[in-house]
Design a protein that fits this description.
Elements (H helix, E strand, L loop, with lengths): L2 E8 L7 E9 L3 E11 L2 E5 L2 E3 L1 E3 L6 E3 L28 E3 L6 H22 L27 E4 L6 E6 L5 E5 L5 E3 L28
Length: about 210
C-alpha cells in the first residue's frame, strides 16, 4: 500500500493544539478524510478520524454522549463518570472510524502526513496560496424558509426602477418604490379596500328645505 496524495487544511488559530485537518489517498483509489494533526507534548502527531462514544438513557433509551450530564431527550440526570477507561486510566470518549492495525502502517501514515504538513506551512507563507483540502461544508449556508417575511423585489413595466414587497403579520402586502421609498400600494389582493358603494356618503339635503334626508 502506498500513500499517493496528502491534502492539508491549516487551522487559522496557531495557538490551538489542533494544527490542521488532512485527507490521504491510498494507491490513487481510496480516500480517508478528517485525519487531525495535533500538537502534543512530544511534537505533532496524527489522530485518526473518530466519532463520539454514546450510551443509552436508562429511562427513555435515548443516546447521549458520555460526557452529557442530562439526557437530551427526557432530561433525567445522568452519572458523570460513566465512560470506560483505557490502560492509562483515561476516559475513552471517542472511537476511531478508520485506523491502522499495526505499527508499520501507523508510522508510514505519520511520516507522510507530518512531512506534507510541514511543506504546507511553507506554501501558506507564499503569495497566492490556495488550500487544496476538499471541505464540503465550509462554504455552505442554510436556505431560508419560503414563509419567512423577507422583502421581495420586482421591476415595474418600464424596467428602470424596482419595487419591494413586504408582507406584514395581518396579511397585507406593502409595495415600496425603490427610488421614492414611499408606499405605492398598502393593500393586498387578499384584503381589498371597500368599494364606493360601501363607503360612507355625506348627508344629502332636502331639495325643498334645509332638512337632512
Amino acid at each position: 500500500m502506498e500513500i499517493t496524495e496528502v491534502r492539508i487544511k491549516l487551522m487559522e488559530d496557531s495557538g490551538e493544539r489542533l494544527c490542521a485537518f488532512c485527507s490521504i489517498t491510498l494507491d490513487s483509489c481510496f480516500v480517508i478524510r478528517d485525519l487531525k494533526i495535533i500538537q502534543g507534548s512530544k511534537g505533532a502527531f496524527v489522530a485518526m478520524p473518530s466519532r463520539k462514544l454514546t450510551d443509552r438513557c436508562p429511562k427513555c433509551h435515548f443516546k447521549n454522549h458520555l460526557r452529557a450530564t442530562f439526557c437530551n431527550q427526557c432530561g433525567v440526570r445522568l452519572r458523570s463518570e460513566r465512560a470506560p477507561k483505557d490502560d492509562d486510566g483515561r476516559a475513552k470518549l471517542y472511537a476511531d472510524i478508520a485506523h491502522p492495525i499495526n505499527s508499520e502502517c501507523r508510522d508510514m501514515i505519520q511520516q507522510s502526513v507530518i512531512a506534507a504538513y510541514e511543506e504546507e506551512l511553507v506554501r501558506a507563507q507564499q503569495e497566492g496560496y490556495i488550500c487544496t483540502y476538499d471541505d464540503f461544508e465550509e462554504d455552505r449556508y442554510a436556505v431560508l424558509d419560503g414563509n419567512e417575511d423577507t422583502p421581495q423585489r420586482s421591476n415595474d413595466t418600464h424596467g428602470n426602477r424596482s419595487t419591494m414587497q413586504m408582507e406584514t403579520e395581518d396579511g397585507k402586502i406593502h409595495r415600496v418604490d425603490s427610488q421614492s421609498k414611499h408606499e405605492s400600494n398598502a393593500s393586498s389582493s387578499r384584503e381589498r379596500a371597500p368599494s364606493d358603494a360601501m363607503s360612507p356618503q355625506p348627508p344629502r339635503r332636502d331639495a325643498f328645505g334645509d332638512g337632512i334626508i
